[in-house]
Amino acid sequence: MNTKTIDQASTADLRSSWVALQRAAQRARELAAQTGTELVVSRNGVIERIKPQPDTASHRAQETPAQYKDAP
Predict the structure, then answer these.
(1) Beta bridge mates, 46
(2) Exposed e or buried b for every residue in 37-51, given b needs 16+ CB within 10 A?
(3) Which of 20, 29, 41, 61 is the most buried (most CB within 10 A)?
């Protein structure tokens, strides 16, 4: 088993994947709050349904564009 953290991965795509997952999770929370949809998550093997709390600052339907780097 690999014990390295994701920020120590050998490829840039893998190192950047954590930031992409966090951005996707934030967008999912925003969309769920806008539509009144519960989020379904697994915590320690237990499935939970979470009703997101409306937050006026997070009701943006637009996100900032991702910064892409040219491949070597």
Answers:
(1) 43
(2) eeeeeeeeeeeeeee
(3) 29
